[in-house]
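Reviewers asked in the last cycle whether our approach scales beyond single polypeptides. To address this, we selected a multi-component target totalling 526 residues and predicted its structure end to end. The input consisted of the following lines:
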Amino acid sequence: MQSKFSVKFLTITLLVFNLNLFAQHEVPAANDDKNDIKKEIKADIDHHIQDSHDFVFTYDKENNKYYGFSLPVILWDNGLQFFSSSKFSHGETVAENNGNYYKLYHNKIYKTDAEGTIDLDDHQHPTNVKPLDISITKSVFMIIVTGILMLLLFGGLAKSLGKGSISKGAGRFFEPIIVYIRDDIAKPNIGDPQYKRFMPFLLTVFFFIWFLNLFGLTPLGVNVTGNIAITTALAIITFIITQISGNKNYWKHIFWMPGVPWPMKIILAPIELLGVFIKPFALMIRLYANIMAGHVVLMSIIGLMFIFKNWLGSGLSFFLAFFLTIIELLVAALQAYIFTMLSALYFGFAVEEHDHEEAH
Amino acid sequence: MDKLINDFSFGLFFWQIVLFIVLLLVLRKYAWNPILTALNDREEGIKNALDEADKARQEMAELKSSNETILKEARSERENMMKEARTMKNSMIAEAKDEAKTQADKIIEQAKVAIETEKKSAIDDLKNQVAELSVGIAEKVLKDELSNKDKQIKLIDKMLDEATLN
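The resulting structure, written as structure tokens, was:
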């Protein structure tokens, strides 16, 4: 439901943009200024959606000044290359490390010569060598921050609960959520004694996604859960846990569905096998698309304020952005819930015991 | 799709997997397991306390009902005892009456016997006295009769007559 909502907003936004585009064709000279702003907003959104090698809060375009901090760059290129991202000067200079030269092009690191030449092919893709980049990027930095935050929060909660007393402070807020995940997500979907094994994963994944979604809504401008690499990693972990914990029944239901005639069994086997891979794929795309779309729509509407430049339009955009932010707060929790819920459901399929054949 | 694949950053994927697994393991050891155990313990404690309260309530009710039965029993016992005492009293009175009657009868019997004996002895006494008196009288009469000879012979004749007749 929520993704439909986001799509609707996206459509509305695009419609507004297109209308503007038409208007602009008629009188191109008057709208040059507006066109520049639009391009800038688009570049900003693109930049925001992507990961980056340094943490920039904001930048002053006129003076070309960046406010933020550099992060370490780690490359695997004939051995480990380790240097600070400040060497790139936000993509303007060539970074030199141990006699190798690297240049940032569209937020990606390429190996170049001393002058930093980027060779482009016909499709405007660089042909330079791309070294294996395992830098601590903005997203990795935020993952670490979230991890530390979770350790402090839940370690503290564990300590206060361990003493046999009741939870204090923030733990008082998080404890019912933990109980909710246990009683309303894990227990009904996985089943009573088996759910215990999966609780640490479910709790970690829920709070991890939720916190990072919320960080994405702060003016820090991070988009971690809206990154396909992150959601892929999470979905793959869910997939691996599901397959490892799959019991005899689970595999039997995939390859030799009980309770149906044998020709159906043969037809069902590839479908079920495909389903095994589609499930985590859906998890990956759902989280990615929801968060990404949320960020794009929200930033577009905020950008609209600067395009309209009048009280009515900008005011309307402001309220739209305001309400959308509130919806995004809901989406942040909802997507974390859905991911956890579906993971629990898949684990439930994997460990389900069928002692009642007629149930099919 | 091309853009999506192009956007895929292997480094970020790598770090996400590594950091997430580390986070999962650390949190499991230091946060989730202690939290879940504590929550479980607490819930169990609450459940046990409720169960115990229920049991105590039940015991109280049982105690109350047993008290009532004891009271009832005591009351009926008292009644029984009183009844018994009453019957005992009655029987004792009856017994005493019987005893007294037999005793009285005996005394009366003895008195009668004594009276009979006394009467017999009195009668015997009287007989003796009468005999003595009659002998005395007879002596006096005989003395008087035998004082003249004729009369003596006459009497002897008479007596001889009588004797031969016998």
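The two ends of chain B are 187 Å apart (CA to CA). We regard this as preliminary and will revisit it once experimental data from Aim 1 are available.
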